[in-house]
Amino acid sequence: MALQTLVQPHQSAPAGALPGTWKLGAGRAITLQPREAGVFRVAHGQLWATSQGPHGLSPDDSGDMILGAGQQLRLMPGQQLVIEAWTAQAPAYFSWDPLPAPVLQPSLRMAGVVQPLADLRLALALGVGAAGRLVAGLAGFVLGLAADWARPSRADRALRAQSSAWRAHGAIS
């Protein structure tokens, strides 16, 4: 969750702070804008909260509300909530709990198709990789053979040296 102003976690709060909550001091306001869906709860005190629209669906719906201990709001990703301690003399404590993401499970009929399809995709990727390595290995082997054939052998070099020596002495024309 993005907290746009300084919030003191319970570790730095004075003795008597509520574990697992954040303290919002008197006269302080912050904007909450969660990255994931979750539940905002007032643990102690009262907060003045202004939520992001749409508003005006009913005469009482202005987006402003006073929340007391135990009350909660469900927030969606990106939805803004501005909160301020309602009482100027006392801090308020709140908590934020993200909702678990839903786990999508394939239907029973699809389960028999999904896993083999994933297995085939993995096998194809491994097969393509192995084929590429095989082509590279064969190319190296062929290039090595060609280099060996182009390089004269020790016997060929000795024969050429002997032929050159005989030419130099005039034994061969």
Characterise the protein shown here:
With 173 residues, the protein is of the alpha+beta class. It has 2 domains: 97 residues, Jelly Rolls; 62 residues. Helix content is 34%, strand content 27%. The protein has a 5-stranded antiparallel beta sheet with strand order 1-4-9-6-7, with no helix packed on it. A 5-stranded antiparallel beta sheet has the order 2-3-10-5-8, with no helix packed on it. The radius of gyration is 39 Å and the shape is elongated. The N and C termini lie far apart (95 Å).
List the helices and strands and how they pair.
Blueprint lengths: L1 E2 L4 E2 L12 E3 L4 E5 L4 E7 L1 E6 L12 E5 L3 E4 L5 E5 L6 E7 L9 H43 L3 H16 L4
Antiparallel strand pairs: 1-4, 2-3, 3-10, 4-9, 5-8, 5-10, 6-7, 6-9
Summary?
The protein has helices at 108-150, 154-169, and strands at residues 2-3, 8-9, 22-24, 29-33, 38-44, 46-51, 64-68, 72-75, 81-85, 92-98.
